[in-house]
Amino acid sequence: MNILQCAVGCRSLVLLVHENSDPEYPQYTSFLSRLKTFDSHPARSCQDKYSLAASGFTYTGTEDLVQCHYCGLLLGQWEENDKVWQQHALHNPKCVFVLLYKGMEFIENVKNEFNLKRSDNRGIRDCCRCKSEPYDVGNNRDNGNSQARICKSESYDVVG
């Protein structure tokens, strides 16, 4: 990376953080506060609660549905091979939590890996169809905001 790329990248990073500086659910900014939401998380889940909490997620109380405390992203229907940080970065590459913990290079690598899988015509899990709609995210939310970003992923084979 040259100096110019770094300067432009740093400026856009600062702007992104400045515009999104407040987490959706500030009561879950600590790892332990997020981890406590997983007390009723299904034991049969593909993902362990420690990885989910470390990646910014809290448990919603519904099946395997989790929500990012920072950006509000909802993810569910986890598969055994899913990597939590990668799924978070893939479905919301502008999440400041992911950006601060993993960095822009990680996010770009995830996006590039996803695009490579698409061009290889392998069966992939498509990126989400996201929309904001009312959704009851469980009893562990106390700010009264029931608007959530809902992402649903479907498995399909890409036909070349």
UniProtKB/TrEMBL annotation:
Protein name: Uncharacterized protein
Pfam families, alphabetized: BIR
Record-level GO BP terms: regulation of cell cycle
Superkingdom per UniProt: Eukaryota
Lineage: Eukaryota, Metazoa, Ecdysozoa, Arthropoda, Hexapoda
SMART domains (UniProt xref): BIR (SM00238)
GO cellular component: cytoplasm; nucleus
Species of provenance: Macrosiphum euphorbiae (potato aphid)
SUPFAM superfamilies per record: Inhibitor of apoptosis (IAP) repeat
